[in-house]
Design goal:
Largest sheet: 6 strands, mixed
Low-confidence stretches: 3-14
Distance between the termini: 23 Å
Shape: globular
Strand content: 5-15%
Helix content: 40-55%
Mean pLDDT: 94
Order of helices and strands: HEEHEEHHEEHEEHHHEHHHHHHHHH
Radius of gyration: 20 Å
Strand order of the largest sheet: 1-2-3-5-7-9
Number of helices: 17
Structural class: alpha/beta
Number of strands: 9
């Protein structure tokens, strides 16, 4: 999920039918998120349409692979349609409860899908967009790709499987991405293992044509990999996070977020001082509670199965609208747009460890 986008009211199923486009060409099922004006932010209806189509194609022997993409020039998917969830909660409805259950089930289904999934991650891939692509077998980024789990900026935590895929990035890079919510580009996405291939955005049309002409053999995944190997690369030079890795591994291994901010301001690691000060300022603008819960969630997630990570995220979700900072974050950034959220607690220094721990009470999966 993420905070950037709102939808103009509720739409009927007929209207949303066009918000996920499905087409079959050359034994490939093509799924397009089709809300370009809303940066392809996903609604519950879109989640259901995607799930229904993937289920049908899973059983169809004529479908060898699936391609996921977003319509328009700006985004693959900028996250979940957070405004509709805010309105649901405020109106005493349960849309927000159903949304997370079904969104996570869809994300999990993509992780376990028996046919190869190729995700074309052109433009913004934020929050719920990351949930859709991180289970894909082949994740392609372009020069326009901007990946992030930016939830802490609206008082939420990186969900949609973030508790699984972020802490499995080497070192403390995933902790940094989750606790700070920063965006990364193609080179860093490849370096972190959040993408597999790089292709210029201008070549996506040619890739489509080649997919239409692809000759299938025994293993569709190998056929797709062979096609990508002809046109795409798996590494890019000068990944910024590679240079920052010693500093990130130092600061984001510290025991808690207040310690991180304190040391970012006072300790210099390698040539990272300007980055460290900017990062400290960034962390101090985020929800203290969301960052603290995120840190604990990611460290637990390191030792949990994928299914248990989703279960942990749902456990947190069920409390978060009442007890977390999300409603205030959405109010400040999307509703009133005063951009001055009143976080609770308001500062990192006011964080209470027992309060943070209470969000995890009752979650008893092994490894936690």
């Amino acid at each position: 999920m993420t905070a950037q986008v709102s939808s103009p009211g509720t739409q009927s199923m007929d209207a949303t039918q066009n918000e996920v486009l499905a087409e079959v060409r050359n034994h490939i099922g093509h799924l397009t998120l089709n809300r370009p004006a809303g940066l392809n932010a996903i609604t519950l209806d879109m989640v259901r349409l995607l799930q229904r189509q993937l289920d049908a194609w899973a059983k169809d022997p004529q479908i060898h692979a699936v391609v996921l993409r977003g319509a328009g020039e700006k985004a693959f998917c900028a996250g979940g349609d957070i405004r509709s969830l805010y309105d649901s909660f405020k109106n005493g409805d349960t849309l927000h409860e159903a949304f997370f259950v079904e969104e996570y089930a869809l994300d999990l289904a993509i992780h376990h899908y028996r046919k190869p999934v190729l995700a074309l991650m052109d433009g913004f891939v934020l929050g719920g967009g990351m949930g859709l692509v991180q289970g894909a077998d082949l994740r392609v980024v372009t020069e326009k790709s901007r990946l992030a789990m930016p939830e802490v900026g609206i008082g939420y935590f990186p969900d949609v499987g973030g508790s699984y895929f972020l802490p499995r990035i080497p070192g403390e890079l995933g902790i940094y991405l989750g606790v700070s919510g920063v965006q990364i580009r193609a080179a860093d996405a490849l370096y972190c293992g959040l993408a597999d291939w790089y292709l210029d955005s201008a070549k996506l049309g040619a890739l489509d044509e080649q997919l239409d002409q692809l000759e299938w053999h025994d293993t569709p995944l190998k056929d797709l990999q062979g096609l990508l190997a002809l046109h795409a690369v798996q590494q890019l030079p000068d990944a910024p996070l590679k240079a920052l890795r010693p500093a990130i591994d130092h600061f984001f291994a510290l025991s808690d977020v207040p310690s991180m901010v304190e040391q970012l301001r006072e300790v210099t690691v390698a040539d990272s001082h300007e980055w460290a000060l900017a990062t400290a300022d960034l962390l101090q603008s985020r929800s203290p509670l969301a960052m603290a819960v995120t840190l604990e969630m990611l460290r637990r997630g390191r030792h949990l199965s994928l299914e248990d990570c989703f279960a942990l995220e749902l456990h947190l979700d069920r409390q978060w609208f009442e007890r977390g900072d999300l409603i205030e974050g959405v109010r400040a950034l999307l509703i009133d747009k005063d951009k001055t959220p009143r976080w609770n607690p308001p500062t990192l220094q006011a964080l209470d460890a027992e309060h943070v721990a209470s969000f995890f009470t009752g979650f008893d999966r092994s490894g936690s």
